[in-house]
Amino acid sequence: MIKRHQNLQGWMRILGDSVLAMLAFIAAYLFRFELGILPITRGYPPFEQYLAVLPIVGVLAPLAFQINGLYRANRSRTDVDDFFGVFIGSIIAVVLGVLSTLYIQTYYLPEELKQRGAFEISQLAWVIFLIFNTIFSYSARKLVREIIERRWRAGIGLKRVLIAGAGELGRRVTDKALLHRELGQQVIGFVDDKAKASHLGYRGLPLLGNLKETEDILQREDIDILYLTLPPEDQMKMLSLIEIANRECIEIKVVPNLLQFMVLKAGLEDMGGIPIIRVNEVPLHGFNSALKRFVDISLSTVALGILAAPMTLIAIFVKRSSPGPALYKQERMGLDGRSFTVYKFRSMTENAEKKTGPMWSRENDPRRTKLGILLRRFHFDEFPQLWNVLRGDMSLVGPRPERPYFVEQFKLRIPHYMLRHKVKSGITGWAQVNGWRGNTSVEKRIEFDLYYIENWSIGLDFKILWLTIARGIFHIHAF
Fold it and tell me: Is this model's pTM higher than 0.70 or not?
């Protein structure tokens, strides 16, 4: 039922985004050519010319939103997340629209239609479409969210849920059910033979009885869905509950006990009819990986071009300010635990760790040069890492790469530490823009890194890049 419910919601979102995109395209034409607000410099195109492009826009807008991850299961997205997601998705839609119309013009249109300007869309009209589509789609999402939350608060259309198993796994399922209110589920309580008194008030939900009383509870509480979160040793009891629920025509959801060991998302695949659970699946593979790499190459190339002159001056200043090379090379660990050489402008004295061995930088670190203090304060020392991005060693956004010396210590002490190496390391990341960089809690950094890996989208990457610019200069741990 959840799968059907989510599929229906997904198709409704896709259809809605398609309709809104076409309306935004029509609004862009009217605003550009009919209202007289903007001067018309290159002629007045007939509406039919734009009408021919309308189906393309209706297809490309949902495709762009899919690329940007907007149709994934809702994970407590905030209004800010929705805005950035829709805005970046609309930019992708414009890029795809421009490329598609140019391709059709070049290879498929007869010469007569080319001369008439068929499929020729004003650049300003595309910009106006971007603005309107962002406003329309974001407003629609905000309205739908408000309607769903009001319905939920009013108790309308909710599926009543009973959870068999009040242990840690049952609690996790309860947390998710309460978090994902868009599924329309209301947890009524628990049944469990081993529950302690401490379970009676978890999230305000009661222990309704033991497992033998489940049949009576299902009928009395008018339950629609039964979640089974029992431990492996209770397998026979689980089979009995499945039989009871089947007799009552109640939907059954078995939650594998393996869930408690899953840190990232899990996926299900089929191997000759045998269901296989993929543990700790990441969204960054296939097309998503290629898209992220395209963005990395494009932005790093542009950034290196813009920063070529400033980087040359910095290199000269570093070389003259203290003995030693301008660039500092260091081994770091990246994707799949493979080592690579990271490049930075030298901000410390030459051979700074000769006496101390590997150690983190700290506040008022005496190893820093005078110029190095300024470089580290404003992160100018990290500019050469753009070359690492262009080479493919790193990404613009991702968990910060750590030195193998520290990785060997952390992976034994901190649970799930090595999962951060399932994606490429980044110049900046979700942990960094939220304040967890430098000499701060490694555990909190892992928490934010894993959130980024699980919830990756191209929109989240752009959000992090924007926050890096907005917050990075003023970071208190930049020493």
Answer: no
